[in-house]
Design goal:
Blueprint (H helix, E strand, L loop, with lengths): L1 H6 L18 E11 L2 E10 L5 E8 L18 E5 L2 E8 L2 E7 L5
Antiparallel strand pairs: 1-2, 2-3, 3-6, 4-5, 5-6
């Protein structure tokens, strides 16, 4: 994560290592800036080193006044999950950061 922090110098929040992917075999492939609701955010492409699956993890600052109330991982709440056009999207808040994880295969 330190290498990514050195790249993402324009973020007004600190990238986190999410508990959702803790103790898994995901490794970063590439990263870039994006925006979510007008806020500068990070887009991280991750690859599972065992299966070869690729997912995208977005991280942005969480402002409850701008977003609907979302599940907070530290409160043992489960991420919201939706499906659109064959893509699974999980959304949650962790350590004050909004996270979204997409999976094009439809499973997680």
């Amino acid at each position: 994560m330190e290498d990514l922090e050195n790249y993402f110098t324009q973020l007004d929040f600190k990238l986190i290592t999410t508990g959702i992917l803790k103790n898994t075999n995901w490794t970063p492939l590439r990263a870039r800036y994006c925006t979510i609701q007008g806020h500068t955010a990070a887009q991280l492409r991750l690859e599972n080193t065992q299966t070869g699956d690729v997912e995208t993890l977005y991280q942005a600052p969480y402002y409850q006044s701008q977003f609907s109330p979302l599940p907070i991982l530290e409160n043992n709440q489960t991420p919201v999950e939706a499906f659109a056009k064959g893509i699974s999207v999980k959304i949650w808040v962790e350590k004050g950061v909004l996270l979204a994880l997409t999976n094009s295969s439809g499973d997680s």
